């Protein structure tokens, strides 16, 4: 039995599937791995220094200028879901599965594809919120103003992306969902970023079947029952055929 057949079987047998998705899920929609923007700041400030709550608090205008550049704010919202996102939405809509998507991505594409249960563990580029009065603002507002301010109180608003130095608010529910599922599939994550990379280890300890679809090897390959080294879209199209 090939790994792909095995994974198709696991999906067939599972009622509740947790999916942990990373940057590799989005690259096929044309979205760059934002971390590679590091090069922009050679010498002075690292990615983690710039995309941080400290920098936002210290110099909100400087923060927003850099943030816009790194995350290509002008383009945000224009990307479309790919075959991988569509496959997960389809498992829910047409195969009767409960699919809990735990994503490291901030592009909103799982929502756009129609997945119902999405935990954006690193937040979202699709909006910004006032830390003072908590008024939410949408992407259009952020795109219209160089240094976006709260429409209610005038304070500079913070992007809904989880910044370095901020807690990852959804990490506990993510661990819970992953350890309660029948199957955990990691898609397009190199599992380099903690604490998210601990999720598959915990799931496996809890007796959950685990699968990894990624273009290259990871340091945590040993934590998976099934490993597929291939692109997400291609793999998901083939899985879709096997499940049809
Ligand atoms: Zn406000």
From TrEMBL:
Coiled-coil regions listed: none
All copies of domain Deacetylase sirtuin-type, residue ranges: 1-244
Binding site for Zn(2+): 130, 133, 150, 153
Keyword flag Zinc: yes
Domain of life, source organism: Bacteria
SUPFAM superfamilies xref list: DHS-like NAD/FAD-binding domain
Keyword Lyase carried by entry: no
Protein name as it appears in the record: protein acetyllysine N-acetyltransferase
Lineage of the organism: Bacteria, Pseudomonadati, Pseudomonadota, Betaproteobacteria, Neisseriales
Gene that produces this protein: cobB
